[in-house]
Amino acid sequence: LVPHFRRAGWPLRRVLTDRPNVALVDEAPVTGLRVEDGVVVGVRARQGGHDLTVSAGLTMLASDGFAGNRELMRRFCPELGDPFHGGVSTSTGDSIGWLEPLGVELRNMGACLRHGQVTLRGTRVNPALPWLGAVLVNRLGERFVDEQAHSYSGLAGVVQAQPGERAVMIWDDEAQETAQHVEYAPERMRA
Hints:
Strand content: 15-25%
Shape: elongated
Largest sheet: 3 strands, antiparallel
Order of helices and strands: HEEEHHEHEHH
Number of strands: 5
Helix content: 10-25%
Number of helices: 6
Structural class: alpha+beta
């Protein structure tokens, strides 16, 4: 059961549609696991307002993480504080609630990545910009950090410590031109 493919999913979709034992079901969010005698035997889902029951010999969860669930973020990644979530709406951690009652051992739950660079519309800013000369200033107009001294997610905590937990990133035309050619950047740069 695959909830929905967009650009990133098309190569996988092509491979899976050629397999006789795989059924693709679009736009069908999983709502829970089917468990019989302590064994996962499939999933429950909803599609078009209808409940679906899917049986499977093997169920693999790929569930978008939990960054959109503040309670789970506090539980597993307390060192990140209470960061703004600008990611996908499906990052709710639902699968954790399905797995824990089964006694599943969760690992690496503190391996969280956060991004403190988002536009007012919630679009993530290209993380290459600090390495292209962009600078951050706080609401007082003060530069408060060596932007290149922090990792991709490390800047988020530094920004969060500023007044109002906000900062403005400033860059020049040369950085703009270079950043537009980074593989994942074009739609972000237009934001």
